[in-house]
Amino acid sequence: MAETQTNARSCAPEVARVSILGATGSVGVNTLNVIEQHGAKFSVSALTANNNIDLLYEQCQKFHPEVAVVANERLVDEFSAKFNGSGYKPDIHAGSRGLELAASLDEVDYVMAAIVGAAGLPATLAAAQAGKRTLLANKEALVMSGGLLMNAARTHAAELLPIDSEHNAVFQCLAGSNACDVEKIILTASGGPFLKHPLDELADVTPEQAVAHPNWEMGKKISVDSATMMNKGLEIIEACLLFEKNAADIEVAIHPQSIIHSLVAYVDGSLIAHLAYPDMRVPIAHALAWPQRIRSGVSGIDLAKLGPLEFTEPDRLRFPCLQLAYQVLESGGSAAIVLNAANEVAVSSFLDSEIRFTEIPHVIDAALQHLGHEEVQELQMILEKDQQARSYARTFIEQSVRPS
Ligand code: NDP
Ligand code: MG
Fold first, then answer.
1. Which of 95, 111, 388, 402 is 20–30 Å from 278 (CA)?
2. Is the pTM of this model over 0.70?
3. What average pLDDT does the chain have?
4. CA dihedral 49, 53, 55, 60 (to 10 degrees)
């Protein structure tokens, strides 16, 4: 991360042109909300969606991007027809090529990488390779690509700024420090909706219960990841890559209030924390304006009304996914690709009520044990391993988990 910080351009563009990958999702919508508050500083060059073409159309009519991309190719004609008779029509593209184009357009300065899951990797990588300021929400892309995305950012002088609230907090807590003075990074975790749920009833929780996060409004996949704490597992891997740390340098603290977003401990005994109300517009505004500051639309914390802030150690029995992430960091190689892919398949099956909540870690563990870990360095190899892990996880669910 130190290198990517020093890639900072000496002055920001007068009006920064932004491409938003995953504009119709929770992070995408929050990004447009911040941009809307600063119409003189930012303009929208490209917006992408997968299935939600109604919202994409509304966003296009409001922000008038030059380019709109519908990843789901079957919906492109329907989307295009919506502009008939309208005075404005963006250049419309489809599929993963369209996403990569939106990420690397010459006229774009900043790319918000906010597609969920592995589907976002090629376009996120394209943004870094095109030297764009890449605002990284799509943690799965970094986790599965490992050094590839970080190296692309370094090689092409792309500023890679974390949007994940914890990593954005760490980035802020590290400002102006020397790497050798950092003793450890402490990622906070809310513990999700099942922090105190009776352990013997976890097998019966429903998708509706799992996506009802106590503090954050997010997409379904990351909400389930927060409930299993695989989200924190992915974030430990993300932190190791972004901040060039080992697993032993990263701790997790359960902090149910989600007010402290993470902390950095220094060798002199100082502990620097980042506090904000839990609203993604805070890290989004930070990364859009960095190294300056702009209003996010979120009020500052009223300390007198805050109440107690609690911290506990995570319960490894309740959250086995956390252990799987540490295991993957130890194995290295392609293990993180397998972990991510199997988790995506398992979460999707849980959301479709095909497997139980408590079976999610079993699917991931089985895939990790079966597929091992080899060295993979190129995008094509990463995508192949991802497909292999998905296919294994689906078969495992069919044969071993799904009730007959
Ligand atoms: P959402 O599910 O709300 O949105 C996902 C976005 O990705 C949508 O625009 C969706 O399109 C698009 N998308 C989904 N599948 C594909 C695909 N196959 N190809 C192209 N586009 C696709 O997710 P979130 O906004 O919650 O999360 C986005 C990313 O940010 C995730 O990686 C998450 O981990 C990370 N993140 C999110 C946080 C949050 O507060 N939400 C916090 C920290 C990180 P459509 O809706 O049109 O189908
Ligand atoms: Mg996070």
1. 111
2. yes
3. 95
4. 80
CA of residue 138 to ligand 1 center, whole Å: 7
Atom 9 of ligand 1: nearest residue by CA position: 22
> Which atom of ligand 1 approaches the CA of 52 most closely?
47
Tens digits of residue pLDDT in 146-158? 889 999 999 999 9
User: Which structure tokens are listed for 63?
Assistant: 């922000």
Q: Where does ligand 1 bind, in terms of residues with CB under 6 Å?
A: 22-28, 49-52, 71, 114-116, 119, 137-140, 164, 216, 218-219, 221-222, 280
Retrieve residue 29's tokens.
Answer: 């919508």
Indicate whether 131 and 197 sit together in one domain. no
Domain span including residue 268: 177-278+301-324
Are 230 and 257 within one domain? yes
> Around Cβ 382, how many Cβ atoms within 10 Å?
24
pLDDT for the residue 11: 66
CB 208 within 8 A of CB 135: no
Residues whose CB is under 5 A from ligand 2 (ion)?
Answer: 164-166
Ligand 1 atom 36: residue of nearest CA: 137
Give the percent of the chain with pLDDT over 90: 92
